[in-house]
Write a sequence for this structure.
């Protein structure tokens, strides 16, 4: 493959990793998580092009090969269940093999970014467009103020206003589980936020509203019977938008030495079908975009 | 409260239970499940009115009190985590207390109905409107043919045809996670069915399409990378329609001695918001119905 | 049923519970225990009559219905193994159903009362009628002095004197396991007390004498070989007498607004038969009373 | 110590062990049990004198030393919790050290004898003096008929008749927990038998009456609410009488080569005190003997 | 790197794997083991050169790169503890990364080869140069005769004869733990064989002699007190010699299409130092070779 | 047996034990260990002769009986797995029975001696004949300085110098696993020491060299790939030499009242065979001695 000349001077991998951990140290990640530098190539390369993605799916690894990047930052760790082998039989092993064969490094921040001040949960919180106060649900001990798991927001908005602004923020349809006594015009004074799967972190919190990615049926009933309405974005739609916000920040940290791309192919696997399909493009269209 | 005279002669509770177990013996239920007669009142009453519901929420128990029923059949067991006390602090305890205070019996079939021939999974399978063959994913040993967990269907339909007929069957919007290489006109030849949460039963099966109630983000990615498209109905929308089908069947088994009602208040907690709301009724409107 | 007019003004349930927890907070109870308000009726009632019992057996629940009480305080929690259903098949479920059907609340203090200063173990300690000093075996951290599990007593009495006074205190026969070298006239200088089953709390303590409710054969041999004599009262006979002592105390706390009854039907299941029976009454007679 | 000459020719230890295992193979013992030859001396001795005991307490080991026996058969295994050391600090270690220092072998049959046809449970069953039929509660697979755990007896006797005959059979007082609806003249048609601690083996059985050694308060309430009366003998009083019956049987098996003694010092640790004591002998007197 | 032309026509990886599993199916491996094709490159290559090694150490991976092989067969699996990342920090991750970066496949047979008829244990058994009979210690169910774990040999040789022939067979020094009563001229009639760590497989077997790779001090004392002498070869010296025997066999299976090399760099980490060192070569010299 | 008159005045067992615990309190031992006075005879004897041994094997217990000692101090506890019986079937039970039958006490210090300042690890450290600094790897909290598990030494010696001095110190052959980049003349600056089995204590430490008794193949590879050479002595050869050093120390503590012997029969079970055997004596000869 003919490599195009890059106008970026590049950085050593170690330097990029150092900048990433300046933003959110991996020591903030949950104990059960697997974060940080997950793949380091056998042949070290200068990093000139970096691809950001929420999930490192096969369409995304193909995009990375095509765009000739040296580092992928995947919010979700592609290696979660530890590997006993690396073959071509399973898609996660194929992704790992493709990285190592092509000297692509891989870094995953996951729950470290969830906790960071200015991280994923703060991005999701911006959907509430009148924030009186905001704080982590579980502050991270020894970290700067504003760091921690989830967010708790004081506000004063009608439920329907937040639904509308959330749809705009994530640019996708939203599902609502209304509290037993809530109506669209109910006044919301407190909101719990948890990007991704909120069921276990949010369990038992008292808030008028919860915004998260996904939650099970039985967890939903528990909340709606406790006077809490729940808004679901789909798992990765509650996280992905952060990458666009983070991209220029990272470029700046690296002083313009690297090109930072946000994946075109990375998207939530789920689409809510309203009408059947866009006959011309032969694709299913999300209810919201319609 | 003034009790209206009933024109139904009624049955003993034991007789109704016997008929229910004729349809689907509780021995078919999963080991982790809690099924059968869960509440038997201190003061035995003749059963003349029976309420069918998918979930015994507080709106539904209020409907039951208002309609003066003597037996509730709730597909999901309201007692799942065993109770250490029965107070007014938690909605599930309030539901149990309300039943016992008002001499209402409670029966839950759950996974016994999932497995029954002509049960919940067979009802969900009807969404595939061209069935070449159908069989349980895991047949129940010692039970009549057609009994078991999940269903596996052979068919020949385009993906978009099944999406459309599923929307009509459940009367709600549907979410789709397309397999990496699928388009709306992809020909579907095999379908895996699991009402409710399909993640663990369906794990590892080989089918072009899966229809279930809910599934996590990481389970979805696993399927879409293995050439399987997944359709999600929301948990209880994949189950609830069965009640309407079962209601006349039960009336017949009881030879018209009891009135059988299907709950008006029972509905899935989730609504997919398309546009913000129906301003006149002040309610959120599902994308599909729109 | 015609309800007799009560001359007691009554109290709200919450007020009675508050007074009970003033005497012994439920936070004192052991972690494995299930204490506090275990049943709270669907229809709240003013509490005018309270029944105290050691065990909430079926004869006692019948007594409660007959005497038309609104609250039962049962020292032992009738719900210990959590309930997966509430039917008429098992006596503990029948008791729970009877309470809820008749709007009777249920409160159980158990190990919180064991630890209270002036609680069950202090009542049992009064059997030693010369107490030089007394202290809990395991003091409760953060609680007032004299609070904790079990009791340790310094005394100077002959063994036979304590046996005799214990018989009088519990008004029942007593079983004795003499230490290998003890005689009736052995001087007892230290006594370990544990109402109920003393085996695990008392394990390894050094005392001339132990008074408890029940203990296994192999535990007894361990003590008698370590120079400790053991007196067994039968489990509930080591606890029940406290109720008579507590009854006026509770009446006073509630300022006479409620009538406090001690159950007539509550008794230890065991009777020691010496001679066969009282032919006239056709009952077995305890060896002590004879 | 001057050893008296014995008129018994004696046997090798291995021969005696073989005869014992002919009566009840140790393979019949429960998995959790520790049975068979537990101590085999460093210096092998001819066995001329054997001491039978229910519990190998310190008074009994002293009796053994005084009577100069070469083998002790202790129904209960003196080593149950495995030993990490053998010192003079704990009575069970002292017993083991005394055996080994004096070349005394030790054999324990325990649950193997419980199951044997003609063993401990059959001896206890003789207290029911009208046996219509008798069978093990849990037959031992592959063993001769009549072998197994516990016994189930069909009879027709009044409750008070069995109480009286049990007192005579064990020569001690008895405790009775009457079923909620039983009187002394209730007709007993079925009896469950379990020597020792019957709680776990007897759990859930259906019988009018249970005879066992000891049982906890909460187990007793469970039985009395299920129409079963329970008679307690105290643990070892439900077992000990078998030794007197077994002694001549063993003598015969060994063809008179060994002298067989039943311990004088072995007795249940518990005595039920009715009146205080026998002033002359300065001992507590059991309620029954009085 | 300039690749030398190979005169071997080569094979597809799948074909080589098939031949390897013809010799010893991976289904024979122990449950805890991790065997078979562990690394399959992202870019498939024709296999013309194969390197056999006992352990895939860093000297061996360097040899593989230098010799430009496409497949390594490493008896011990280099991935045993599953990997959560693949970086340059740990030697096992470096080995995996080097394989994937250079399109080298990796296959590990381990316990499948131990069990194979004509496998590792049979090779080790050849050290006993008079075999009257030989059979697996634990035959593999459903496999051809002679397949299974360990070997049991009947022979008639003096102990010193076997020691000498074992030294020659493994070409290394040997350690001996003599049974309490054995001398060099003791006649050995039975031998237990277990390549690698024999402690758990050989536990409790009855043999005059055991030959294995390594065993702990406390395991050795157990055997020497049970009349069993143990010969230790060091772990990999009890396995490595098989590779030389297997190499031509594999060449033949592949019909000469691939070149088969046995690693030069693979050796046991341990050397027994006799005198200090070979001053000229500046290396430690094994006691045997001296 | 005719007992020779002893010129030693002797001590009470309790006094000797007290002196031993002055040297190294048993509270220092690891939690999983079984140390202190393990056997205390039924008949107390004055201690005039004490035998020190590393392992209490059957040859050593026979030596003890022959030499008529009253106390054995065995570094390794002969009772490790707790005993359920003490018969003549297993060598460890035979050893215990022999002690108790002959009134021999037994004391085991094990890991308490490993940690002691001046204990087993300090003795092994003396093999490094130029110690710049020395400290425990894991200091014992609350104990005097220099107490703790393992040792860490700073030195400056060539590898071959340490190998030679270790051979002399333990008077046996040594095995060496050279770090991937080490040669005999590599300069060693840091040494980790752990008598016995060093695998778990030494895991992950950073040192140029490790000296221990035994270590598994896979542990060795881990060290040699992390630039650490390992020297193995065989388990008990890394411990035994301490006894000779401790013997006069103990004599002094006991003020000459007891004779202290070091066992003649105690030796490591393993011998490294160099040439076949010493034909005259008919024994295998260690490579080192040759």
């Amino acid at each position: 493959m003919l490599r195009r000349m890059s106008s970026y001077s590049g950085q050593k991998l170690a330097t990029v990793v150092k900048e990433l951990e300046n933003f959110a140290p991996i020591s903030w990640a949950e104990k059960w998580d697997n974060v940080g530098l997950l793949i380091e190539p056998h042949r070290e390369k200068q990093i000139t092009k970096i691809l950001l993605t929420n999930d490192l799916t096969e369409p995304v690894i193909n995009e990375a090969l095509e765009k000739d990047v040296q580092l992928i930052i995947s919010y979700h760790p592609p290696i979660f269940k530890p590997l006993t082998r690396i073959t071509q039989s399973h898609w996660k092993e194929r992704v790992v093999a493709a990285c190592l064969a092509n000297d692509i490094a891989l870094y995953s921040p996951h729950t470290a970014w969830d906790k960071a001040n200015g991280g994923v949960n703060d991005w999701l919180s911006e959907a509430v467009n009148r924030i009186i106060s905001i704080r982590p649900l579980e502050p991270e001990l020894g970290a700067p103020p504003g760091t921690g798991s989830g967010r708790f927001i004081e506000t004063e908005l009608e439920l329907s206003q937040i639904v509308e602004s959330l749809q705009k923020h994530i640019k996708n349809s939203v599902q609502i589980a209304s509290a037993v006594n809530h109506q669209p015009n109910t006044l919301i004074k407190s909101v719990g936020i948890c990007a991704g799967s909120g069921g276990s972190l949010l369990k038992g919190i008292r808030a008028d509203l919860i915004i998260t990615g996904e939650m099970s049926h039985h967890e939903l009933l528990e909340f709606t019977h406790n006077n809490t309405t729940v808004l679901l974005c789909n798992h990765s739609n509650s996280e992905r938008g952060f990458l666009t916000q983070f991209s220029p920040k990272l470029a700046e940290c690296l002083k313009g030495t690297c090109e930072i791309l946000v994946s075109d192919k990375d998207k939530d696997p789920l689409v809510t079908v309203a009408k059947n399909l866009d006959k011309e493009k032969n694709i299913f269209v999300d209810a919201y975009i319609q």
Summary: Chain F has two domains: 13-113+240-262, 114-238. The mean pLDDT of chain F is 94. Residues 114-238 of chain F form a domain with the Udp-n-acetylmuramoylalanyl-d-glutamate--2,6- Diaminopimelate Ligase; Chain: A, domain 1 fold (CATH 3.40.1390.30). The two ends of chain F are 40 Å apart (CA to CA).
